[in-house]
Amino acid sequence: MSVRKIPILGKESIHVGFNLVQHIADTLLDTLPSSTYVLITDTNIAPLYLQPIAATFAQATDAHFPDKSDPARPRFLTYTIPPGETTKTREGKAEIEDFLLRHRCTRDTVIIALGGGVIGDLVGFVAATFMRGVRVVQVPTSLLAMVDSAIGGKTAVDAPLGKNLIGAFWQPSYIFVDAAFLRTLPLRELANGLAEVIKTAAIWDEAAFALLEANSSTLLTCLSPSSPALHLGHPLLTLIISSINTKATIVSRDPREAHLRGLVNFGHSIGHAIEALVTPYVLHGECISVGMVLEAELARAAGVLGQVSLGRLRRCIESYGLPSTLSDKRILEAEKRIVAAGGQAISVDTLLDRMSVDKKNAGKLKRVVLLERIGKTRELRATGVADEDIRKVLCPAMRVVAGTPSTYVKPPLPPPMLELPDADPTQLSGPVPNAHIPQASSATPVPIGKPATDVPHITLSTPGSKSLSNRALVLAALCKGTCRLKNLLHSDDTQVMMAALEQLKAATFTWTDNGETLVVTGSGGALSVPPPGTQLYLGNAGTAARFLTTVCTIVSPSNTTDASQAQMTEITGNARMKQRPIAPLVTALRDAGATIGYLESEGCLPLSIKPLGRLPGGTLMLDASLSSQYVSSILLCAPYAAEPTTLTLTGPAVISQLYIDMTIELMRAFGIEVTRERDAVSGDLLNVYHIPKGTYRVPESGEFVIESDASSATYPLAIAAITGTRCTLANIGSSSLQGDARFAKEVLEPMGCEVVQTETETTVTGPPKGKLRARGEVDMEPMTDAFLTACAVAAVATDGGVGEGAESGEGKNVTRIRGIANQRVKECNRIQAMMDQLAKFGISTRELPDGLEVYGRPLSQLTRGASIHCYDDHRVAMAFSVLATVVDGTILEEKRCVEKTWPNWWDDLENRLGVKVEGVELPKPVKTNPAPKTPETIPSILLIGMRGSGKTYIGELAARALSLPLLDFDVEFSRECKQPLRDFVLKQGWAEFRKAEIALLLKLMKTHGRGWVVSLGGGIVETPEAREALKKYAKAGGCVVWVQRESEEIERYLESETERPAYGEPVRAVLERRTPWFEECANYIFGNHTALPGGASAMGSGALEAEVTRFFGHVSGLRPNLVPSNANRSYFLSLTYPDVTPALPKISELTTGVDAVELRVDLLRESGSQLPSPTYVSSQLFALRRVTTLPIVFTVRTVSQGGAFPDDAPAEAGKLLNLALRLGVEYIDVETTLPPSLVQEITTSKGPSLVIASFHDWTGSVTWDGVTMKAQYEAAAQIGDVVKLIGRANSVSDNFKLQEFVARVAEASKPIIAINMGTAGQLSRVLNKTLTPVTHPLLPTAAAPGQMSVSDIHRALHLIGLLPARRFFLFGSPISRSPSPTLHSTGFAALGLPHTYGLLEGESITDETRAVLASPDFGGASVTIPLKLDVIPVLDCLTAAATAIGAVNTIIPCQSSSPEKPRLLLGDNTDYIGIINAIHAVSPGLRAPDSALVLGAGGTARAAVYALHTLGAKRVYLYNRTHAKATAITEAFPSVPILVLDKLGSWPASAPSVVISTVPADATTIKTGPGLEGKVYLPSNLLDSSIKGVVVDMAYKPAETPLLALAKHVAPTWARVPGVEVLLEQGDAQFEHWTGRRCPREIVREKVLQWYNA
Ligand SMILES: NC(=O)c1ccc[n+]([C@@H]2O[C@H](COP(=O)([O-])OP(=O)(O)OC[C@H]3O[C@@H](n4cnc5c(N)ncnc54)[C@H](O)[C@@H]3O)[C@@H](O)[C@H]2O)c1
Ligand SMILES: [Zn+2]
Fold first, then answer.
1. pLDDT of residue 1093
2. Percent of the chain residues topping a pLDDT of 70
3. Angle (nearest 5°) at CA 41 between 40 and 43
4. Which residues are named in the active-site annotation (predicted)?
5. β-bridge mates for residue 137, sequence order
């Protein structure tokens, strides 16, 4: 075993190697003798390593102490605690200390900390204070701990106010770094540790950094099982050792963090502040990754760090998948979750605030490590930085402080400390950086001398041109020899190009001159295929993709003769790149003999390109109408062909000739002369190019200076123009081929600037501020990108314009820019963008077909403080920066968008141009509660499924239930094609039909994207595009519902059907092919099965309708079917059956009093199978759904959590949980112990359903006051909408501890189910409030030991005084025959409630009534005739319904907050609810009827009108014998359109679809004749038999009233509601108001009907 020893603080106490456990045991027994060794670890690591370690220690002990009775023989104890940051607390520390004390550990104890940084920090701190300090040994197991936290002796715990605030320096006796532990480390933790490795390399060790840059893919895959084993020479080990070396060196020189040691905090000053806000969702290393980039930006802004180094750092961090900005989606996601749980949002102020509790701050300045370049910091300690500067890097927006360039000079940083105050250099080991004084920073503003006139004069060179940089890189790489490229653009695009060229071994690159010069050593065209499995990743760099496609064809084929080894070079890009066209180039190259394949979509990246060595050359044709980059690509490589090449450009018109000329120009500079053919007669240039054979040569000087980007150059020049100062730009002049180089001469000069241009330099001097002339008309076609700059300058040009349309300045202020139509399709619609944003300054503009007019205004009239939206477009941001230098307070909203072409624009603006900028945090849009969903605004619901599966029928029901219109795809298709679908297929064939079908689908998704139910054709899934479109739709939050039916049923149905064209193949084959497609496209499944287990008997009438209503209401989010969150208690019943169907007939009895039903999926068993199959589970659910609409809790309980589902089948569990979501199940139980990826999958796709995150301790060892339960709470609260924690009670006192726990976490906003199992835990079940699991006496077994029924719990609550008995009454007369006592008493009894219901008969409100109302045990009252109005004066308040109806039928006592009157009496009227509910019971989807009719005009008629109004009736007809009474009602409901009828049977508008009679039955008749004159005659055309209406008769005797009889005979399609049903429904509503519990309807109804029929 080889062990590498590294010294720290003068001792060789760091041991690095593989499989060190034996070594550890021997070393400790030999050199740290003790009576007790205590190993402390976490529950992730214990199962992996504890047992073998203990065994090794036991053996080693035996070897050292062969005599078992030797008193010196030590003990070996182990203790395991929960993992994660939540354990690193004072409580966690106390728990370990209690363990040590219990085991009588003494001062000679040696504690071994086995684990990640959490264990190391916590256990280290325990050791530091236990018995005033005991020895500790660190055995880090995470990469982060190995390279960082275990080294240096810093220990700490967290406090609620911040991380690591309480701790000590406590040096371990040993640090054993055993890389073998890494094998089990999760990938995310590996990257997390690599962040610290990157940090250490960045501050101290450039070689290590280069290793990191080059090996990201190797390092990220080195732990996967398929990778070769790690060894000491592996890059990972090299990096671990160099990191440890560096940290050991630093710690040794500065053990107590006086100066130098502060350097390892690079990235941490800001990183820790971020971490404090997003813990535990984002890991430490991830936070410091963002911190490093931001702190590096701080260094760049201070002029300390160059853009090249910053770019390297950022790209290195990103290449490990680590976040680099605050807008990384991991951070945003974490913020969202934390805010949702009531936590703090991330803002610049909260971050600065968090930074201010940093231990290392120095007064007002915050300490930040400033990087000077990779491998070196500015000084040997952190530098004090002002808040203002930090704010600038943290802020997403910038404010430009208007002022004259060069007048702002930033305060300098404090002088650097370059030597440690009292360092003893002889003590050092490891590399020591040579700190030298940074060269005079190039950042100081350079006001060059005094120019002729005494205006300020700025000289600078702007970033290199992107187009030239990319060309120069390819040319230099293809050269033989070394070429120095100067002024190269440092951007992501060029970086991508360099990385790809390096991977092709085309060249090597090194930076010199602090990043000013790139040294390219070219291979002369000898390129090789990258190793198999690597793809060249080009991001969204279009130029690189186009150029490299040809470059890859000239890669040399390798020597292997093995044909199967035919290697190809593969190039790919990001999602956007994969859509950008490349076909014309590929076609041309294929014609020229290349072999290029499309790996994904035709015409786009990724490509696979065969290495040819050389192209054959000769004649080549290329369509150049789309992009000039295709032409340049071929030109650049053509010299390397076997024969001279002639390239002919075809296509309608050659685009961007300038860029082609640019390529030819550069090729000339590198020694290849391209000639362009001329027409022999006319002499005109032709689109034919001749390229000779040859090799590129490095220019004579050995270097090539890349011209500055001419578009970028326009901004500083425009600033000079607008501020009346002077600016000289090097590297851009009259010889430039870039169109935008003309901007100075052709735009600024005519506006009154003095422009001096040499071949390579441009100087602009502006006229005095405010004196710019309008440009008049200018064609900017050759310099389109500069038009935005022109607009900014034109905004203040007020003199000399083109006239007309001039707003104010009589035409002198008009600048008319033309020839820029293409700018509408750039990063954004730039013409629109300029018009919209200029308007914010008060500038008027007018759009032209190919440009715009800008009407300049005097500076003094411009609006200050405008906040400019930049559309993520760099040019918009920089153009408005120009205007901002003269208009005070202008804010540019997205500062980062400049990164594309001028990453340090804001720094340059301040440091070089001398214009101050300030960071601004924009107010976050005020979060209003999301508007409640309305049917019109939800994404349309798409139904798919086989023909014959009932799509149309289900669609109709769903549409009705959601009050949405239904669109039938087939009908729409026929309408569009103006012929029946069948004819279309017969005439044009299936292929054409599918084409037309997808076109229509895409169109409908746009035109009918919201507020529809759309039933799609069965074959829509046959086309891949349609499948993609559907999947995308579902992913974006829409519902795609697969209506599923048994195959046999579908076959049977289709065999008899003729309307649609036949398939031409067996139905079964079609079904089998499409089923997986339906499955993949749909995010929901609606089971429309005909034969259900349990038989048809279980399906009451209306069951399917009720299920459609529930399902679509829930999945659409319109009416999530959840337990009301305001219920004071809620219960769910656990169904513990292998097959639930036997329970279905008695489900209503079983669910008495519960709010939800739990399906214990783990207990379901088909005969003979081990696990329930998804098909079985679906059919069980479908069956259950036909008998109850209560929300379902879907639980797959694993064995270790007390269930029956195997622990080792998470994939199967995952399948079932996903299935549940697809089936529209309301609550999904997710165990916290499931794999995190699965948990994530469920929580992100749960839609309107809720997750119950559960943890069960069956051992009884997890206590409610320990860290484990707390850790489980945190874990569950992260995942779940509801937290479920189940412990086990050993004694009744465990229930009190549970209650204290619940009280402690109560502030957290998540509802919690907390219960102790076992009989001793029953009290916890009684006291639990949310979703208490209950059983029922009729169930075969209880789901858990100690489980009780609802009535058990209520009785127990009553006995312990938490549910006092109340008295309820009926007031009115006569009431002796009322069903109400039966109704309510039955309900109370069924639920185990101790209440009573009695009669208080009387025709008026008496003293007795008042006494009852005042008695403390009064629970509520029903009120009937004649007291419905008289009772009002004795009440305190009325509900809106009671007020509108003008009568009270229910009295509800409520708590009030006033001490004088603690109880208020509220009057309500539930009659209208009874009407609505009774109607919905027979017609679930009924909403907003067009017309409805009410018969009668008494009190009940008022309730009926109110009910119809609530239902959304558009029109109510009212008929009453006495017209005047009817009119009185219209006056009582002024907002309801009521039409009083004189006569029944003829309607002023549509016939009513709801008819409610409130007339006593014996006052109506369906016959005419003598003796019946006094009655209301119901004509036979009262009910329109052509519609499906609902008729309600409020009279409840006799059972069949004349109205109901009429309906039965003349309108059998109508649903009939007898009065007793309304009575039951309104009683239900009363019951619910009074008790807060759902009424056990079935039991109550049975009793009431018995009474009724008696
Ligand atoms: N003291 C210091 O100088 C210092 C420096 C940096 C960080 N820290 C602290 O370190 C902590 C972070 O350390 P961390 O990232 O190691 O976190 P950690 O200890 O929580 O470990 C990360 C996760 O990986 C698991 N794990 C560790 N090793 C494993 C292995 N070999 N196989 C499988 N799983 C394994 C752990 O159980 C845990 O779930 C933070 O609290 C931070 O403040 C301290
Ligand atoms: Zn750290």
1. 61
2. 93
3. 140
4. 257 (proton acceptor), 272 (proton acceptor), 897 (for epsp synthase activity), 1256 (proton acceptor), 1284 (schiff-base intermediate with substrate)
5. 112, 174
Distance CA 1091, CA 1227 (A): 26
Residue 1598: is the preceding peptide bond cis (ω within 30°)? yes
Active site residues: 257, 272, 897, 1256, 1284
Mapped onto helix, strand or coil, the DSSP state of residue 1029 is helix
- Residue 1233 pLDDT class (50, 70, 90 cuts): confident
Whole-number Å distance, alpha carbon 957 to ligand 1 midpoint, is 55
**456 pLDDT tier (thresholds 50, 70, 90):** confident
The two tokens of residue 447 are: 């006001």
Q: Measure 1349 CA to ligand 1 centroid, in angstroms.
A: 45
The helix, strand and coil proportions of the chain, stated in percent and rounded to the nearest 5, come to 40, 20, 40
One-letter amino acid of 56: T
- Tokens 């040993």 correspond to 174
Across residues 123-134, what is the average pLDDT?
96
Taking alpha carbons only, the member of 1004, 1017, 1003, 999 closest to residue 952 is 1017
| Ligand 1 pocket residue status of 42, Cβ below 6 Å | yes
Nearest CA to ligand 1 atom 18: 116
Atom 41 (ligand 1): residue with closest C-alpha? 118
- For residues 952 and 961, what is the distance between their CA atoms, to the nearest angstrom? 14
Of 1652, 1629, 1580, 1634, whose CA–CA distance to 1480 is shortest?
1629
Binding residue numbers for NAD(+):
42-44, 85-88, 116-118, 121, 141-142, 163, 181-184, 192
Give the model's pLDDT for residue 1308: 58
Distance, in Å, from the CA atom of 289 to the CA atom of 1376, rounded to the nearest integer, reads 79
* Ligand 1 nearest-atom number relative to CA 155: 1
Task: Give phi and psi for 1156, each to the nearest 5.
Answer: -160, 165
pLDDT of 426 higher than 60: no
- Cβ of 1467 less than 6 Å from ligand 1: no
Question: In this structure, which amino acid lies at residue 2?
Answer: S
Q: Which two tokens stand for residue 1406?
A: 């008496």
Q: Tokens 């359109």 appear where?
A: 1537
Residue 184 Cβ inside 6 Å of ligand 1? The answer reads yes
149 lines ligand 1 (CB under 6 A): yes
CB of residue 44 inside a 6 A radius of ligand 1 = yes
Is the beta carbon of 1202 within 6 A of some atom in ligand 1?
no
Sort 1241 into a burial class: Cβ within 10 Å, 0-12 / 13-18 / 19+. middle
Flag whether pLDDT at 1091 surpasses 80.
no
Q: Closest ligand 1 atom, CA of 285?
A: 15
What is the chain's mean pLDDT, rounded? 88
How far is the centre of ligand 1, averaged over its atoms, from the C-alpha of 186 (Å)? 11
CA 387, 389, 390, 391 dihedral sign is positive
Q: Region 692-718: what's the mean pLDDT?
A: 93
Q: Give the amino acid at 159.
A: A
Ligand 1 touching residue 121 (CB < 6 A): yes
Ligand number nearest to the C-alpha of 193: 1
What pLDDT sits at residue 450?
Answer: 33
Looking from the CA of residue 42, the nearest atom of ligand 1 is 37
- Indicate if the alpha-carbon torsion angle 1634, 1635, 1638, 1642 is positive or negative: negative
How far away, in angstroms, is 150 Cα from ligand 2 center?
Answer: 11
Average pLDDT over residues 524-545: 84
Does residue 652 register a pLDDT over 80? no
Q: What is the DSSP letter of 87?
A: G
Tokens of 833: 């963008």
pLDDT in tens, 1139-1153: 988 888 888 889 988
pLDDT at 1046 over 90: no
Q: How many CA atoms lie within 13 A of 1125 on its CB side?
A: 8
Q: In terms of pTM, does the model score above 0.90? A: no
Q: Is the pLDDT of residue 866 over 80?
A: yes
Q: Please write the tens of the pLDDT for every residue from 184-239.
A: 998 899 999 999 999 999 999 988 998 898 788 778 887 777 767 777 778 899 99
